[in-house]
Amino acid sequence: EEHGGACLFIPFFFCVRERETERRVCASIPRLPPKIIASISFMASPSARRGVSRLSHLIKGVGLSSPAPPITARVSCQSSDLSSSEMVPFGVRMASTQIIRNRMRSVKSIQKITKAMKMVAASKLRGAQKRVEKSRGIWQPFVALLGDHPDIDVKKTLNLTVSSDRGLCGGINSSAVRYSKALFKLSTGPDKEALHIIIGEKGKAQLQRDSKKTIAMTITEAQKMPMSFTQVSMIADEILKNFEFDAIKIVFNKFNSVISFAPTVATVLSPEMLSKESDQGGKVSELASYEIEGAESKEEILQNLSEFNLVSVLFNACLENACSEQGARMSAMDSSTRNASQMLESLSLIYNRTRQASITTELIEIISGAAALEASA
Fold first, then answer.
1. Measured between alpha carbons, how far is 329 from 9 in angstroms, rounded to an integer?
2. What are 226's strand-pairing partners?
3. Tens digit of each residue's pLDDT, the chain (377 residues)
């Protein structure tokens, strides 16, 4: 570079490692006059003072017995093309590297959390799968006996949405709520009435935004532990006591695999609707071919079957949704862990580039200052 009409060439070798770069540049500094080397520490650039403080052991080797008097004259670079507004103030590079280090630390902490949550979800998934397989043997005989009626047209409908109490499990709750809203629109009309019943905090939070007036009952904090048949029976008993309905449509996520779950709708009819289906020759009419012990009437048998069918289907829906929740959470945490690894790689690359650029800039300032002082002397 040219400074004050004078030109000075100093060997400069760029290396990736800071110490190697410092060693090579230090090997060139003793070739300068001793007065110039001692005067660098009194320059206005703080980065130059820091650079020279690291090289003080080499200044002693030049043969100076005492430091040179301070230079009070202002050094100007006549051939500099940078304006004062374009000059970067001291501390900007250090602040940027500190920000990147803090970001890397936070990403590492998040990565540890997501990895631990993935392992916990995987361990819970095994137990949930066993419970789901056992529960399927309860409601499947009732579906074979009473049938499923997804397209039935009734006047009073209860939409029961099963969701989770915790988040960080992908779009499992959003899909169930979306299906529930679509069913609600189909179940409402001039002569139709529909209400929402929600199990789970996440489904409640989403449906309250635009369907708050139609929510009849919410059940939260019931899924901290795996739900038992007794708990589901109590929920079903509350529904049967407090609401009159022709059909209950239960919306839940059916577990297929760790990465696959499908929103499903199960329909449970009231005893009155079962009686109508039996009179119209539906699948319920096949009950007449069975021999039933006891003196119970047909209406009592249909009522008992309807109530037990509601409990068994709801029990299976809660377990299916809980199993789907753990599978979705495991997949989501696995994706988060991999994304954190990619982010750490990119941040490490940016940090190394910023640090090397800072080292190179400081060394250039030291050498340029030395050349400017020699030209002004």
1. 62
2. none
3. 334 433 333 333 333 344 454 454 444 444 444 444 444 444 434 444 454 454 444 444 444 444 444 433 333 333 334 344 434 444 444 558 889 999 999 999 999 999 999 999 999 999 999 999 999 888 888 888 887 887 888 899 999 999 999 999 988 999 999 999 999 999 888 888 999 999 999 999 999 998 889 999 999 988 888 899 999 999 999 999 999 999 999 999 999 988 889 999 999 999 888 888 777 776 676 777 777 776 577 788 888 888 999 999 999 999 999 999 999 999 999 999 999 999 999 999 999 998 898 889 889 989 998 888 888 87
Tell me the C-alpha distance between 372 and 28, whole Å.
17
> What H or E segment, with its residue span, contains residue 269?
strand 260-269
Q: Which two tokens stand for residue 180?
A: 């529930």
Determine contact, residues 331/259, Cβ cutoff 8 Å.
yes
SS3 of residue 251 by DSSP: strand
220, 165 contact by CB (below 8 A) = yes
Q: What is the pTM of this model?
A: 0.69
- For the beta sheet containing 247-257, the strands, ordered from the edge strand earlier in sequence to the opposite edge, are 215-219, 193-199, 156-162, 247-257, 260-269
Half-sphere exposure for 43 (CA within 13 Å, toward CB):
27
Nearest-angstrom CA–CA distance, 351 and 354: 5
Closest of 264, 320, 309 to residue 142, by C-alpha = 309
Residue 192 is given by DSSP the state B
